[in-house]
């Protein structure tokens, strides 16, 4: 992969200069009049867009770039920014990159590949806008409880949300159902509310931290369950701070009688490899939420393979739900998109029996 994408590495090495040129192109002579805070935010946003573009090119996934452009367009739309902002940015990207073509490090063919992926990304935004569905959300278990739980936490009422969950436990609701139908759907709704500018970052972080706390109240029960002699070791890649999903997966698997060993967010590769060597798990799981962290997941898997660790490796997170073939490109053993699918997959991979749960 490295040899095939030397041109991308060339662009990445010059990313800061390219980003600065894009900002100048977008703001013309006004760039010198920009407030420092506004300028730095513009630089951060441009870097974020470029990182996702470059990652889509490296892993050769038009699907992921389409999802990214749709997400970014929706975010800008609901933040009251101009609907042309994202389009203007990528037009500026093409103008700036045209000046980078040198037929040695970055050729016309490379430029045309970037032009193609961007063009297709924006074509699907227009298609999605014209085919928006008005279908309602199907009824799900704990639907009313989810609504009340959401209301509590959006009102900063952690105590009320905790009492709701404790009452559900007293009513003999299966703890696994709390993860399936309450905690996980709530986190998805929380992300949607932030993306559509209905809540701010502080509210989103409070609600996530509150849910982590409420989940911890269940640990006395979860950890008291009998366990089989199998270990599921999970980690986030280096730089990845979104850990809620993989944390919930580990809790769920504990309810399925597995032992789990969760290393946490932002784990250095060397620390992961050392933990694997010491713990000797039956399955390794690598979580990656941000698209531009996918190459880190691939590199970690390569290092684990080179260390002759013959353990199944699963990958998961938002990008792998969007592109069903992405797991194969990372060198992983597989992926699974739901709690039950993960449980069934690890039992099959380890020669176990899938129990009715």
Automatic annotation (TrEMBL):
The answer to whether keyword Metal-binding applies is yes
Name under which the protein is recorded: Cobalamin-dependent protein
| Ranges where the B12-binding domain occurs | 229-356
Q: Which UniProt keywords apply?
A: Cobalt, Metal-binding
Please indicate which superkingdom the organism of origin belongs to. Bacteria
Ranges that cross the membrane: none
Q: Which organism is it from?
A: Anoxynatronum sibiricum
Q: Which PANTHER family match?
A: METHIONINE SYNTHASE
Does the keyword Coiled coil feature in the UniProt annotation? no
- CDD domains cross-referenced by the UniProt entry: B12-binding_like
Instruction: Give the SUPFAM superfamilies listed for this entry.
Output: Cobalamin (vitamin B12)-binding domain
